[in-house]
Amino acid sequence: MDPINLAPCLPQAKWSPGPGDQGWPVMLCQVLKESQKCTRRKSLLKVRVMDFITSTAILPLLFGCLGIFGLFRLLQWIRMKAYLRKAVVVITGATSGLGKECAKVFYAAGAKLVLCGRNGEALEELTRELTTSATKVQTHKPYTVTFDLADPGAIVAAAAEILQCFGHVDILVNNAGISYRGAIMDTTLDVDKRVMETNYFGPVALTKALLPSMIRRRQGHVVAISSVQGKISVPFRSAYAASKHATQAFFDCLRAEMEQYEIEVTVISPGYIHTNLSLNAVTADGSRYGVMDKTTAQGRSPVEVAQDVLAAVGKKKKDVILADLLPSLAIYLRTLAPGLFFSLMASRARKERKAKNS
Length: 358
What we know:
56% of the residues lie in helices and 10% in strands. It has twelve helices and seven strands. A seven-stranded parallel beta sheet has the order 3-2-1-4-5-6-7, with helices on both faces. Helix 7 links the parallel strand 4 and strand 5 (220-225). Helix 6 (152-166) runs parallel beside helix 7 (189-217), helix 7 (189-217) packs parallel to helix 8 (238-258) and helix 11 packs across helix 12. The protein starts with a helix and ends with a helix.
């Protein structure tokens, strides 16, 4: 037992001091007194804090701040809903993964959708799924445009078809993309080009094709779904990271140049998402990877990420990172302590190489 708890029992206890124990009762009394003083000081401090909080000056200020914050959030929510309702939203890569979930949340928000992808049957199936779902706002039947972003010759015709759907585009969501797994020394240049065509040149070409109509209206919003790997590079992802770094740079430049036309540009960088991205990734020789990575399997739900994308677009944010703590810290580590970051990536490369060879 604690000596402090024994102190009240000492007068009733039959105890005689032994050699060296003569100062024990005095010590217990001192400890007990100090404990009581500390308790009284804490109680007095609590009383003073409560008096301060409940004083006539602080309570109105506290409730006033909470009211202003709540009103601000309410106005922000109303503004976001109004911005998205009836807006013409073009989504590429809408047949699966994050693109499909984005289609659902934008549709539920009342947007007029133009869904784009390579698989026409999958686009029609998504359209039927959307039109039969229950929503709380007025909805509009989506249009579909089938084309491959990796085919430069198809993009101009696709842009013209997109504009014919509703006459204009309010929000372009460049979501389509392909991932990659492989060692640089084993990767053919054709694979690098293929990844760049889909992830970089395709979105750039489509954006350039639709920009003139936005500039004429002095109204529009271009969204690029990039990746955390557009800010940091991970070993054995060279082609993918390069394409996302290029995407980040291009749309950062676009944002600055489009400011004079009042056109918004948002770059969204998610971390790992639980989709089929790694399954459909290309390898060093161009074949399909066909493996669900552990990091991908443990990634965030695409439903949650789509909600975050909707909020970021509705609030017209310029640059958004949708990642867990460690990837977010890695971004800052790359800038603040590059030597440590490079050492960590080299260690990761060694571990992955060892696991692959074992």
